[in-house]
Amino acid sequence: MPRKIIIDTDPGQDDAVAILLALASPDEIDLLGVTAVAGNVPLELTAKNARIVCELAGHTDVPVYAGCDRPLNRPLVTAEHVHGKTGLDGPVLPDPQMPLAQGHAVDFIIDTLRAHEPGTVTLCPLGPLTNIATAFTKAPDIVDRVQEIVLMGGAYFEVGNITPAAEFNIYVDPEAADIVFKSGAHIVVMPLDVTHDALVTPHRNDAFRALDSKVGHAVAEMTDFFERFDKEKYGSEGAPLHDPCVTAYLIRPELFSGRHINVEIETQSELTLGMTVADWWRVTDRPANAMFMGSVDAQGFFDLLTERLARL
């Protein structure tokens, strides 16, 4: 039975690839809807980009909802310096024809979790956790109904990518992350420690291009674009594909390994705001609240991605 999921996202080129991987895998994933949040770029663009990606995949049947346009109680920090001014810079893709679904993303998340049997809907946040935290605060009864939260965010050994201590998604809305990590829901975390192993090398990007499809070319052009920034920043041979790790985990969890540990979010310190303080060595007696992934079989990940994108 395919797993029912909601993708909560701020597309972003790597978010786009995560959505495409879900849409290419109907045997494993039943995408109930996409909820957009402000993050990499403002909400107007993330809501537009999510629809562009669904149309690229030929899936105008997936409802896309616009959600929160700013963090719970901070000004929005965005990442045009990484993703370009549209958030999807690289390929030239047409404006979406499909309309936004009526209603607010937060209400869609609440209503969907209440409408389905408890423990059958997985939330997949790929951006700041504002929509999820707002839903949990507004409707505390839904927390126990969540099957799992599989999210991209945080870092431990790889430290931060937007500040020395913090990963972007958590840093943008640390209060939201704090609510989610303290919620008691079953959480799986794909931190930079994993995603920085999933590098789009020229060889891997050539494999996307060689699919010779609309999707293959678009993905290759997206990764070409944000790769320039990351290669310069990290001195690596390619750019990390962060968000598709979430979707890949739902399809082939054995590609990933990690530890069930305590993860706390720093919300006070100016120096380390948004840090995911992961008790990897279990040196505290704080109870474990998250499966924090530490490594990925990178070649297996790219083999899966290329095989699935070929289906679109």
What's the helix and strand layout?
Elements (H helix, E strand, L loop, with lengths): L2 E7 L3 H11 L5 E8 L6 H14 L7 E3 L13 H4 L21 H11 L5 E5 L4 H9 L7 E7 L15 H5 L1 H8 L5 E4 L1 H4 L3 E2 L1 H9 L3 H21 L4 E2 L3 H8 L4 E6 L1 E3 L10 E3 L11 E7 L1 H12 L3
Helix pairs in contact: 1-2, 1-10, 1-11, 4-5, 5-7, 9-10
Molecular structure report:
The chain has 312 residues and is α/β, with parallel strands linked by helices. The chain has a single domain (3-309), classed as Ribonucleoside hydrolase-like (Inosine-uridine Nucleoside N-ribohydrolase, Chain A, Alpha-Beta Complex), CATH 3.90.245. Helices cover 37% and strands 18% of the residues. The chain has helices at 13-23, 43-56, 80-83, 105-115, 130-138, 168-172, 174-181, 192-195, 202-210, 214-234, 244-251, 298-309; strands spanning 3-9, 29-36, 64-66, 121-125, 146-152, 187-190, 199-200, 239-240, 256-261, 263-265, 276-278, 290-296. The strands form three sheets. An eight-stranded mixed β-sheet has the order 3-2-1-4-5-6-12-9, with helices on both faces. A two-stranded antiparallel ribbon has the order 7-8. β2, α2 (43-56) and β3 (64-66) form a beta-alpha-beta unit. α9 (202-210) packs antiparallel against α10 (214-234). The longest helix has 21 residues, at 214-234. The radius of gyration is 18 Å and the shape is globular. The relative contact order is 0.16. The model has no long low-confidence stretch (mean pLDDT 97).
